[in-house]
Amino acid sequence: MTRTREDIEALIARTALGDRAAFGELYDATSAKLFGVALRILKDRGTAEDALQDIFVKVWHGADRFTPGGASPMSWLIAIARNHAIDRLRRTQAAGGVAPLDEEGLQVAETRPGPEAEAIASGERSRLDGCLAELPEDRSAAVRGAYLDGDTYQVLAERHGVPLNTMRTWLRRSLLKLKDCLTR
Amino acid sequence: MSDAADIYGAGPGGPDGRGDAATAGEYALGLLPPDEARTFSSRMRAEPALQSLLAFWQERFALLAEEEIEPVKPPRSVRRKIHARLFETRPRRTVTRFWQTLGGLVVTAAAAGAIWLAVPSSMDRGAHFEFSAELGTAETPVHVVASYDEDRNVLTVERLRADPGPQVSYEMWVIEGENAPVSLGLLPPAPRADLFLPADLGAGFAGSTFAISEEPIGGSQTGAPTGEILGTATFAEL
Asked: Which of B32, B58, B89 has the highest number of chain A CBs within 10 A, making it the mutation to test binding with A?
C-alpha cells in the first residue's frame, strides 16, 4: 500500500495526539522500510527486531516534535531509525575499542522549515545521484558506506588503505563538495 | 581534539561556516568522535543554523535510504511487543488525557446502569479476573479486551484499538444465552477503564457473549443494538 507524504504526515500528527489506531497504521505503512534501514546497519535480524521496537517507541513519544510542512516525514522517520541503529552499532563496537556515543545518542534535526531544510522536491533524488557521481568513485563509496552501513572512519580507512586522519579529511572534503553541488 | 583542527575545514571557525557544514554532515553520518559529537549536540541547542545544516544532511541522506534500501517485512511479533511496551503498562500521557475528558462522559455510562472509572496502574495488582473476552485482534479495526472480576463485580475494559470517529459511538453489550443483549454503556475512551456493574448484572458472564455495536452519538436510543455489530467474543474462564 503506497502512502503519500501527506498521509504519513497526518498519521504522525494523530500519533502525537495519542491516537493508537493512527500509530498502528503508521507502523504498517513504514515499518518495513525502517526495518530495512536497521537491518542494513546492524546485519543481524534479532538485533534489528529489538531496534525496531525501540525505534517505534521513540516515534510514539517523539511524534509531537514533528512539524508538518518542513522535513519530509519519511526522512524524519528514517533519521530516527538510522540514528538508533547507529547508536546500537557503536555500543557493540565499544566492546571492540570504538568509543560509544553519549547516552542521548544522535539527535534528529528539528523539522521546522528553515533556509536549508526546505521540503525536498522529487527531483532531488536524481540530483543527489548526480552530485555523488561527481565525486571520485572511492569517495562517494565512502559516503554511501558511512550512511547505509554505518561504517566508521576506522573501517573506511582500513578499506581504502589510508591513515584515519586522511580518511577524515577526504570525507569532510567530499561532504563540502557534495553540499556545493546540491545547493548550486 | 587538536588533530581535528588540522583537518580541512574542521571547526566552527572555518570560512563561511563551511567547517560546520562538514561537521554537521559527519554528525548526521554518526562519524564524529564522541567528544566532538557531544560538543556539536550542545552547540546545536543554541544555534539554529546548525539545526538547519543537520536537517539538510538528514534529508539528503534519507534519499539514499529511500532509494537503495529494500523494505523488509518485520515479523508480526515486533508489532505486538511494541504494543505491549507502550500500552499495556499505560504511559502517563494517556491517563492524564483520560482524566481531562472524564467529566463529560460518565453521564452516558451511568445512564446505561453502570459507572466506569479509569484505573491507575497501581490499582491493577488487586484485580483478579475470572472471565475474559477478547474482541477482535491486533489486525481488526476494533480490538477490545473485557475482563470480569467477580469479587468486585467489576468489568475491566481495555481499549487496544477503536476509533469511532466524531459521527458515531461504540456501545458494549453482554448477551447471555438466548436473552436480549444488555447494554454495558459506551466504550470508555480511556485505554483501560473499570466498569462498576449493577448488582444484578455480572452473575451470568461465564460463557456469555461480549459485543460492540456502532450506535448514534450517545448510544442506542432503543435499549437494543441498532447499528452494525463490530465484533463479538465469548467470555472464557481464566
From this structure: B58
How is residue B155 annotated by DSSP? E
pLDDT of residue A158: 95
- Compute the mean pLDDT over every residue in chain B, rounded to the nearest whole number: 75
- Chain A residues with CB under 8 Å of B31 CB are 146, 152-153, 168, 171
Helix H or strand E segment including A179: helix A164-182
Q: What residues does B232 pair with on adjacent strands?
A: B211
Domain with CATH 1.10.1740.10 in chain A: 1-95
Q: Domain A1-95's class?
A: mainly alpha
In sequence order, the 6+-apart residues with CB closer than 8 A to the CB of A113 are: A67, A69, A70, A119
The enclosing H or E element of A157 equals helix A153-160
Chain B nearest-CA distance from A7, in A, is 17
The Cβ-side half-sphere exposure at B141, using a 13 Å CA radius, reads: 10
Residue in this structure with the C-alpha cell 452516558, named with its chain if needed: B108
Domain with CATH 1.10.10.10 in chain A: 115-184
pLDDT tens readout for residues A57-106:
999 998 988 877 777 899 999 999 999 999 888 887 765 545 445 444 56
Nearest Cα neighbor of B39 from B16, B66, B18, B10 is B10
The residue assigned the cell 539538510 is B56
DSSP symbols for A72-112: -HHHHHHHHHHHHHHHHHHHHHHTTTPPPPPTT-PPPPP-S
Q: Which fold has domain A115-184?
A: Arc Repressor Mutant, subunit A (1.10.10)
Indicate the pTM of the whole model. Answer: 0.61
CA distance to A20, A27, A32, A148, per residue, from A41 (Å): 29, 20, 14, 7
A12-22 per-position pLDDT tens digit? 999 999 898 99
B98-139 residue pLDDT tens: 333 333 333 334 334 445 555 443 344 445 677 789 999 888
Taking CA atoms, what residue in A is nearest to B159? A20
Contact A32 B74 (CB under 8 A): yes
